[in-house]
Write a structure and sequence with these properties.
Blueprint lengths: L17 H16 L13 H10 L8 H52 L20
């Protein structure tokens, strides 16, 4: 089927009106422009034409009414969950970076103290030259 030719033949069992067809195709075109891969292999390159072809071929699942509202809520919940995970991961990375920084400062200070402080001398009388015990 050639999409560019007019009038477009719409299967009203898949899409209830030409207005809904336009809305669905525009939403799908936006997804394609944002980087989502096309469902169909097509010779067309424009996102709007690819989206229209996908809708007309019945490759997209179209939800209406309560099903659509439930799907929107679920998608919103998943986006928020993904965003909170991303924020949590970013915060964990920040904390790990701060800990590494603090530890490096501590280790540098410890090395400096070891270099500056002389090694303790052995106490007198503990060397091997100490007097032997006298027998009685």
């Amino acid at each position: 089927m050639e999409i560019i030719s007019l009038p477009i033949e719409v299967d009203y069992t898949k899409v209830d009106s030409k207005y809904r067809l336009v809305i669905i195709a525009s939403q799908r075109a936006r997804q394609l422009m944002e980087g989502v891969r096309p469902i169909l292999q097509t010779r067309h390159t424009k996102a709007s034409t690819i989206a229209l072809e996908e809708v007309l071929e019945g490759e997209l699942e179209v939800l209406y009414g309560k099903d659509a509202k439930l799907a929107q809520r679920e998608a919103k919940r998943l986006r928020e969950e993904m965003r909170s995970r991303q924020l949590l991961t970013e915060r964990e990375e920040e904390l790990a970076s701060e800990i590494r920084k603090d530890l490096s400062v501590y280790l540098e200070e410890s090395k400096r103290r070891e270099e500056i402080a002389p090694e303790p001398a052995e106490p007198a009388g503990t060397a091997e030259t100490a007097e032997p015990d006298k027998e009685e």
